[in-house]
Specification:
Layout (H helix, E strand, L loop, with lengths): L12 H31 L5 H8 L3 H7 L3 H26 L3 H25 L4 H28 L9 H12 L10 H10 L6
Helix pairs in contact: 1-2, 1-4, 4-5, 4-6, 5-6, 5-7, 5-8
């Protein structure tokens, strides 16, 4: 993703002119990743690149310039979604009417992420070390966020206080496994019931 003429020595005007181009490049890449994530959630990680390009409003060549292989694209989407989930936690706590509502919205984002994560496992089946590294990154970034949401809801008296973040996330993940194999199986509905079940009795 190089910008011609912006790399190299010099300072002053040339240095200042490079910054907006780098920012544009980052925004363009984020647009591609958002489009790919949306397509992966609805059509799976093997969805045609042309569908991703159409949603992003670019040509397929642009996608291949950023991500030469499908694995490159899937891994980039994975990391992009992890960061989006991590950043969404505090934002949802600040904007939602209750911590429990924030938790429910965050879990919806997490379910979308899991669709890509399952596809990543298939793509990286021959690279166990690479997958393990990404999984560790996922845990480091998201478990504390989920923990903070649970803590806030428990402190507000909305949910029971004995639920560990990693246990909840693993439970949500297990509910999502195999959801694409049976159209009658509504994983998201079951996850909603799980989150509703965390509420304390009146």
């Amino acid at each position: 993703m190089s910008d011609g003429g912006t790399v190299g020595g010099g300072d002053g005007e040339s240095g200042r002119a490079a910054r907006p181009k780098r920012a544009d490049a980052r925004r363009n890449e984020e647009t591609l990743l958002d489009a790919a994530a949306a397509i992966f959630v609805t059509a799976g990680v093997e969805a045609p690149v042309r569908d991703i390009a159409a949603k992003a409003g670019v040509g397929t060549g642009t996608i291949y310039r950023h991500f030469p292989t499908r694995a490159d694209l899937i891994i980039a989407v994975y990391r992009h979604q992890v960061e989006a989930c991590a950043e969404a936690g505090p934002a949802l706590l600040a904007s939602s009417p209750t911590p429990h509502a924030a938790l429910g919205q965050w879990i919806n984002l997490f379910v979308d992420f899991l669709v890509t994560k399952h596809g990543l496992a298939a793509v990286l089946q021959s690279d166990a070390a690479g997958f393990d590294t990404l999984h560790a990154y996922f845990l480091d970034r998201l478990v504390p966020v989920c923990g903070r949401l649970l803590e806030a809801a428990a402190d507000a008296g909305e949910i029971r206080s004995d639920m560990d973040a990693i246990v909840l996330m693993r439970g949500v993940g297990n509910l999502c496994i195999g959801a694409d194999a049976d159209p009658r199986y509504d994983a998201r509905r079951l996850v909603e019931l799980l989150i509703a079940g965390l509420r304390r009795s009146a």
